[in-house]
Amino acid sequence: MPLTSPTTRFHANTRVLSPVRQRKHESLLPGAGVFASPTCVFTGIVEDIGQLLSRTSRGQGARIRVATRLSPLVLGESIAVMGVCVTVCRILDGAFEADASSETLSRSTLGRLSVGHRLHLERALAVGGRFGGHIVAGHVDGVGRLLARTNAAESAELTLTYDSPLATFLAVKGSVVVDGVSLTVNMVDARTFHVMVIPHTQDHMLFGCMSIGTEVNLEADVLARYVARWLDVHRLTEEPKEPSKSPEDGLLSRLASSGFL
Questions:
Q1: How far is 16 from 127, CA to CA, in rounded Å?
Q2: Count of CB atoms within 10 A of residue 250's CB?
Q3: pTM for the model
Q4: Residue by residue, what is the 3-state secondary structure of 116-184?
Q5: DSSP letter at 22?
Q6: Positive or negative: CA dihedral 112, 116, 117, 122
Q7: Is 99 helix (H, G, I), strand (E, B) or coil?
Q8: What domains are defined for the chain?
Q9: Taking a C-beta distance cutoff of 8 angstroms, is the pair 184, 196 a contact?
Q10: What pLDDT digit, counting tens, does each position of 59-86 carry?
């Protein structure tokens, strides 16, 4: 299915399938009755532009209703909504509902987006599917802001802010997820990083109409996250040694001793 145009309008009068139609709908789906695995992977390649139809508070969390052309949906499957992994808990005619915990609402923009806001959507990668982006967990690390947009021929260079804890995971030519889209880091400094958005991405994603100051969900490369954690644990557990000549020598030594080099 081709990507939905950002200008596509979704109708808010989405109706819920009746229990009978819901069961009939589920029975026709492959793997009906089997809930999605709690471990899922995305690639940062957006499949559809949806729309936030409603957000209803439920205790400290919320339930969101999202219009989409993705079909057929399966109860319990995972969908990345603006880069946030949520579980489909109710299937509607042309939409779905999912619950967002207090952690999700505090870590991402899902609790602050206005009703009617358009959304990047991606279903979890199917076994044997094409891996077009990079490994994406759908676990947002923090919220950044669009600081600047600069034209670069037909492309656009975006400058985005990030919180200091993400500094360890951002590297030039490394991967980062911005609102669910896999992008390559072109430059990074103490408070900002830069990405290049090609014309196709501008035309089919929401970056082309994003205003300065807009909040975005950020997820670091999961491989960088695990390497950083491994180095932290190794540093805390290793026996005191004579200081290396430089931090680079120490890093190379630890990687070599663990079989990475």
A1: 30
A2: 15
A3: 0.75
A4: CCEEEEEECCCCCCCCCCCCECCCCCEEEEEEEEEEECCEEEEEEECCHHHHHHCCCCCEEEECCEEEE
A5: H
A6: positive
A7: strand
A8: 19-123 (2.40.30.20), 142-223 (2.40.30.20)
A9: yes
A10: 999 999 999 999 999 999 999 999 999 9
